[in-house]
UniProtKB/TrEMBL annotation:
Annotated stretches, region: Disordered: 1-24
Signal peptide residue numbers: none
Keywords for this protein: Membrane, Transmembrane, Transmembrane helix
Organism: Streptomyces lonegramiae
TM annotation in the entry: 47-65, 85-107, 128-154, 166-188, 200-220, 240-267
Protein name: ABC transporter permease
Keyword Transmembrane: yes
Record bears the keyword Transmembrane: yes
Length: 272
């Protein structure tokens, strides 16, 4: 077999066609987000986490409202039951975000992910955004379910205002989204589920419980500046708060940003 060429004409090798909008998979940050979204829902663990969150919300809010009714507590906003359940429900979000990061390290697939998305800050930011969106939607869903269950269990010992309840639902969703970003940062720093949980369980639950149990204004002030302490002031209505909801959001966001930066530092310094 012979190849003929035309004198005076140069045959160039085929050139790659650049990506154009609407052709093939998206690139850049949008492509990284789409990839992380697909990877998250390709395994069963996120579904189990969300189902666990729904179950915990239903049980805890019914218990909270029933105890308030039995003890004849003063009338309070019905959304406070859903806000109180966040101390436990947040760990469904923590586990979901942890698995989204550490599962790639345990299987070694993180190497392929970093080949597809070589910019490490983009890779981490895509995971954080996907986890935050899922956590926000899940958190607002949990809050709506908790409010409905608590309204039945309160049996008239709670107040309901549409605007106030909507504000609490959005606040709970926002808090859960920030917890997801915090978790992604810690997971990138530790690269192991046990290491991530050993940091977040004390930070989000054990330490606040100890500080409030010991009592005293100084320890209470320390708790107010921890993620869940500030988040509780954001989500709950009626209790005296040492700062505004905006300040509470900034405190939780500062914790999330610090964890994100630490995780990014480790991701850049250590090989996958």
């Amino acid at each position: 077999m012979t190849t003929t060429t035309t004198p005076g004409r140069r045959t160039d090798p085929p050139r790659a066609v650049p990506d154009t909008p609407g052709r093939g998979a998206p690139g850049g940050f949008a492509g990284a987000v789409a990839s992380e979204w697909t990877k998250l829902w390709s395994v069963r663990s996120p579904y189990f986490c969300l189902l666990a969150g729904l179950a915990i919300t239903g049980v805890f809010t019914y218990y909270y409202a029933s105890i308030a009714r039995i003890n004849d507590d003063p009338v309070q906003p019905v959304g406070n039951a859903a806000a109180s359940s966040a101390v436990l429900v947040q760990f469904a979000v923590v586990v979901l975000a942890t698995v989204a990061v550490t599962s790639e390290y345990s299987t070694g697939s993180v190497r392929a992910s970093l080949l597809w998305v070589p910019l490490r800050y983009r890779f981490q930011a895509a995971k954080a955004l996907v986890a935050a969106v899922v956590a926000f939607v899940a958190g607002t869903t949990f809050a709506v379910l908790g409010t409905m269950v608590a309204w039945v269990a309160f049996d008239g010992r709670a107040s309901f205002e549409a605007g106030q309840s909507l504000r609490q639902v959005l606040a709970i969703g926002l808090y859960q989204a920030l917890v997801a970003v915090l978790t992604v940062g810690v997971a990138f720093a530790t690269r192991h589920p046990a290491g991530t949980l050993s940091i977040l369980v004390p930070l989000l639950w054990a330490l606040p419980s100890v500080l409030l149990g010991l009592g005293g204004p100084t320890l209470a002030d320390v708790n107010d500046h921890l993620p869940h302490g500030a988040g509780d002031h954001l989500m709950r209505i009626g209790a005296a708060a040492p700062f505004t909801p905006v300040t509470a959001v900034l405190i939780v966001a500062a914790w999330a940003a610090a964890a994100h930066l630490i995780g990014l530092y480790v991701l850049r310094r250590r090989d996958a």
